[in-house]
Write a sequence for this structure.
């Protein structure tokens, strides 16, 4: 006998968790498709050299890698961005540009397990490859906003920045070489405050106190996007890169307003650097007003060259990744997750053991009207069947014994309101029953 | 520079293949939910001892296995049935019975690659666990039928048998010990014919010529289900097991008829044994009338005890597996696969470079009406944009330059009919435009 168990850091999804998860994934697909993004899929396993050295030392260390039966070094994908780069480099001639794809698939990382972190999780990415147009930056923002509202969130903020603003400032301060350590220090600002950040910038990045002050002056810009955009030129000076970044930010906020995104859901945050050397243009992070501590639930941005390790072609792109499992945990915490344990609203009791055919016909009739229906498989006691129906969360139970069936009747029971009505029903004339079910479902 | 490539036996799914694949998966989910089946998910990786020895020597040999960074022996799942058994044994107290689940997920097998066979493929399973009722056998059949018609197939046959009929015959002939070699020979009947099958049965299974003749007499029963069911008692004799099997087959055909399954789509085929020692009751195989050679596209049956290796509890079940990738290949061959390369029907040309906001507003308006719309990201030449729209297969293009926008007009172009009309449009009064798009999409 083998003990049934999952691997450490892995989890099973039972129906009560998988039903809302599947529904959220379907919502995401619907949003992506609304903007003309197309689905793709790539293998879980890749040649090891395709995966290593593409993320960070950490992702290399966390990689699930092995030698397959054919002696090949292989690895399980740790994100969907590296496979996208490989995919685009391999197929771009056939795909054409702009290439807009979404990809929902599991990824694997051998992380140290901690609360809410798993070694297998669902990634939900979308990217537009092959254009540098600000229209794609704006579209990315619109999709993030649409994803959040379509999933049922109202109180959230999308933080926006453009890496060119920071890059421009560092150019002017002659700190381009120290970009990485400067940004790494800057990322700690929300946690350790201005003074400690300035000190660390001097010690770790080797900048002067004056330079640190100027970098931190940028991060201190606050207010509405218009106010910040008005302050920036004074902080940045005449850096061409920064001016271009400021202009793109202006276009981004104007475009979002034109497409109807409420201004209060957007925040210009010139201190976020996200991903350090990865992003080159706009950057997005999304925070829930009611659960800011869980971190960004949808992040992304623009990168200059996706495929540089696989191809000489230059392909810019912009996109983002939805933290699906994190969002589902948040929905549960905020109690906006519907507690459904069934996928069909109607339960049909198998009441009279000799009339299975009649119940099968009844179930087929309800389903033909576009309403999901589950028929209990055994003619057990009605009380036991209704207990099952209650525990699964069905909305409606249809109950008919031999007498009712013979007399052309069926009881329609609202399992939530605990009310019931008797309705005329024969297989030839099911209309009244279907109407009664629809009425009850709509109430 | 690393050459972008996939592993041997693995494949990328480009949008033109992934769009219909995703749509078929969604159709399958819709069908499963219509019968009250719930989604679950399990990890791609399992403890090695959970996976080995559960399938065949072949699946053991094909297993992707390795030692993870924590020194654990792990394997990638090769089907969804073994993980279901582990899952049910682990969670049955919480799940309760009947437990009806569906599971769509990739599985991995290091098979020798050949035409159309991949080392990673999508499984699409549904099972009802915890009841022996014939109502569940019937429901399994209904779902197979519903899956096939919902996916667009009309010409197919579901072959049905019940292993109890064969088992009963073998009991009467005192051949229970030789069940496996007898069935293995019987499985070759369609390929090598009666005489050679009889000869092999004698040599490989050690049965007498008379016993072989009686087994083959069973396989020779032909006609409508009623005709075969009438012939069977004479062939089988008075085996209790066989009589029970015959009765369940009668109930199955009666139930299918009651639920409205056309009789011509069902075939009672008492020679199919499928899976040898795995199934214990009803067996299903589904063949396309127009492509019989691709083999069964949806197969399954009833098994006595799913969880025996993980738990002492006895849990019978019945279910089937849809061969999604095989069916998609068939749909392509039969030309019933829609050639769509876009997920949104409407293309919006970015015509006047200074009016991005107006196009963003237009796109938002179309999407708010529930119609997917893609905005071209760059103000390139109109000809180039329309060429892109054509190549992607959009249905409709919206074209408006600065003049049209100023005058409150927009051109609606039917890219398939090559016709166009000018429609009044302003962001404040978009109704006429939306109506024109809906009309064109419906035509």
């Amino acid at each position: 006998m083998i003990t049934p168990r999952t691997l450490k850091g892995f989890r099973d999804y039972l129906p009560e968790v998988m039903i809302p998860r599947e529904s959220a994934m379907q919502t995401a697909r619907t949003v992506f498709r609304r903007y003309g993004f197309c689905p793709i899929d790539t293998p879980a396993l890749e040649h090891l050299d395709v995966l290593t050295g593409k993320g960070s030392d950490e992702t290399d260390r966390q990689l699930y890698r092995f030698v397959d039966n054919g002696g090949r070094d292989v690895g399980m994908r740790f994100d969907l961005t590296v496979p996208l780069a490989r995919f685009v480099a391999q197929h771009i001639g056939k795909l054409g540009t702009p290439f807009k794809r979404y990809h929902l698939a599991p990824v694997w990382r051998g992380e140290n397990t901690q609360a809410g972190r798993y070694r297998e999780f669902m990634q939900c990415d979308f990217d537009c490859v092959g254009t540098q147009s600000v229209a794609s930056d704006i579209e990315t923002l619109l999709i993030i906003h649409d994803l959040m509202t379509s999933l049922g969130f109202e109180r959230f903020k999308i933080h926006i920045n453009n890496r060119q603003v920071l890059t421009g400032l560092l150019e002017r301060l002659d700190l381009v070489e120290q970009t990485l350590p400067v940004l790494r220090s800057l990322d700690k600002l929300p946690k350790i405050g201005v003074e400690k950040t300035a000190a660390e910038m001097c010690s770790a990045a080797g900048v002067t106190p004056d330079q640190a002050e100027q970098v931190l002056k940028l991060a201190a810009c606050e207010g509405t996007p218009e106010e910040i955009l008005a302050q920036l030129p004074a902080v940045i000076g005449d850096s061409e890169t920064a001016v271009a970044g400021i202009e793109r930010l202006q276009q981004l906020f104007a475009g979002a307003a034109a497409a109807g995104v409420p201004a209060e859901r957007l925040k210009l945050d010139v201190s976020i650097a996200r991903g350090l050397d990865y992003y080159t243009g706009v950057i997005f992070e999304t925070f829930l007003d009611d659960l800011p501590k869980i971190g960004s639930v949808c992040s992304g941005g623009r990168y200059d060259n996706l495929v540089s390790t696989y191809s000489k072609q230059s392909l810019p792109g912009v996109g983002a990744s939805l933290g699906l499992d994190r969002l589902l945990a948040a929905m549960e915490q905020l109690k906006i997750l519907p507690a459904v344990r069934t996928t069909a609203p109607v339960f049909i009791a198998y009441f009279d053991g000799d009339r299975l055919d009649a119940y099968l016909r009844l179930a087929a009739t309800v389903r033909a009207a576009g309403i999901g229906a589950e028929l209990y498989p055994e003619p057990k006691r009605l009380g036991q069947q209704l207990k099952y129906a209650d525990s699964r969360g069905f909305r409606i139970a249809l109950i008919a014994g031999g007498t009712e069936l013979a007399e052309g009747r069926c009881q329609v029971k609202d399992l939530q309101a605990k009310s019931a009505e008797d309705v005329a029903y024969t297989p030839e004339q099911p209309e009244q029953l279907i109407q009664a079910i629809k009425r009850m479902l709509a109430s």
DSSP finds 16 helices and 16 strands in chain A.
